[in-house]
Amino acid sequence: MNKKALEDAFNKIWESTITGIDTDLLRHSITFKLKLLPEYNERLIELVFEGVSAYHFFNNTIKRRKQFHEYEIGNFLELTTIDLIESECSIQLNGDEEWYEHFGGSANVYIEICTRLLLIEATKVIIDGQVFELV
Fold it and tell me: Domain span at residue 43?
């Protein structure tokens, strides 16, 4: 993986507007349709995660996670930040049922969407057609 090229590609999509999101569980992919900032000619591009083995979405901080705001695709919805997670980040399930403990994962990318956080464990990210292997 060319880390510098990936960081540069991530930097170009910070603060872009999300115009669509498609999660395909059976194809192990998450696709964002983005409208870039004016300095990048407000072009429309795709951000695609492939080989998605785990993801977790947090709707705001712990105390506000059950406060829901309806967003319609097409209205302003900002991809605030996106970056690699380079330290240990594990997602584990705990509960009364022992079988929960057999499930879990980690994350290698985080995306902040306004006040929300999406953690993704994927093998590949494609930004505007440019492919980056994450493993």
Answer: 3-133
> CB–CB of 126/132 below 8 Å?
yes
Question: pLDDT per residue over 40-95, tens digit each?
Answer: 888 999 999 999 999 999 886 556 555 656 655 555 689 999 999 988 888 887 77
Question: Closest Cα to residue 20, out of 44, 53, 56, 52?
Answer: 44
Task: Give just the sign of the alpha carbon dihedral 22, 68, 109, 94.
Answer: negative
Query: Whose CA is closest to 112, among 66, 80, 84?
Result: 80
Q: Do the Cβ atoms of 12 and 36 come closer than 8 Å?
A: yes
pLDDT at site 135: 81
Looking at the 3D structure of the chain, how many domains does it have? 1
DSSP state for residue 73 in the 8-state scheme: B
Instruction: Give the E-state strand segments of the chain in sequence order.
Output: 16-24, 29-35, 44-50, 54-58, 78-84, 90-92, 104-106, 109-113, 116-121, 124-127, 130-133
